[in-house]
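Weekly puzzle thread! Below is a chain. First person to post its structure in token form gets bragging rights.
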Amino acid sequence: MDLIGFLYGFGVLHGVVLAVILLYSSGGNRRANLFMATLVACIAIRFLSNWLVRTDFFLEHPPWALAARPLDLAWGPLLYLYARSIADRPVGMIHLLHFIPALLLCSAPITLAQYPHQQQVQFLTFMLSDRQDTALGGELLQTMPAFWRTWMEMHLHGSFFTLQFGCYCYLVLRQIQQHNLALERHFSFTDQMNLRWLRTLTWLCVFFLLLFLVFNRGRLVLFGDFESTALSPNMPFLFMVLVIYVIGIMALRQPRIERQDSTADSPDNAQSAAPETDDSDDGAAASGTPKYARSGISLEDAQRYKIQLMEIMREKELYLDCDLTLGDLAEEAGMTYHQASQVINGQMNQKFFSFVNSYRIQRAKDMLANQDTAGMPIVELALEVGFKSKSSFYDAFKKATDLTPTQFRNSLTARGPDE
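Winning reply:
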């Protein structure tokens, strides 16, 4: 077995193991794990198909040659549905429509199986080689339906796969962006919930598509054919062998994220997790209509609630709680969840995340300016003011001051105590 075949075999084995682990994992989001396990299995089947091409298995069993191709068109839908599931957004029967292209492509292996064995072998020999011998497969191509003849001759499967998977990668990135905006409306922390690893994985998939365009579709455009067993058209899939490690490891580490019930109107219902992005709120902000006005809160009440929230935050120092949620703040202030949300998002024109972090950053600045606490290690300082990690503290501090905590401390030292 050559090196490429060995890598494909290793990818198949690893993919199967990861799919089984994801299916039987007791932690995390079971529905999301199911979608990810299916995606990993589909990728592993593609590895298996590429490996079998190198062993001439399909020339001996031609009806199986196109059996795995429809699964390529399931990669994008499965990644998208995983993103929806991991963000705890609804997935219903309507989403099965995403798999229609894959189901339609199932007619390709059925069409091939209708021809005599010898014609199937000739056709595959023609399609899987550099296609210099036009006599091979020609007779079969001429007898095929016009659509499938064009599909096969122009290798439209790979082109359609690239376009479709690229569109779904865009949808996943957009889904992650909306999810993170929703988190910032209702949580003072986003660590382990912001799906940063999924965004990285999606960009890796985009890079895979770029490799596919250059090394696979590129030769097809330039020369009209390619040798399926050569290194160049296989390079994108060998890259995916490495990516599958990231998929498995990070998917298993992703904790379950539960949506907050956006219909909650009492503090008792405020302890669940983040709701979907409320597009109506964005529309109100864009039109200049105060959100609190649209919710039935008067201007006077909104101003009073604003002062009440700021006072309770400052006096009780709730921001020091790294797990503080909007529901917690509403309960402490004696307000409903929706009242607190509308006042912060509308009256203050802030997200809850930035509202709480403004208090944490100010506390950190005061401690850095205080001689008794200025020498405190940054990690301890981050935890002291309510952040869960050093990285989230750094990001928030630099966003607020354009300086890192260390740079801010050094700037105070450079000015001296009398300045």
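Puzzle host: Confirmed. Bonus trivia for everyone else. Confidence is low (pLDDT under 50) at residues 261-294.
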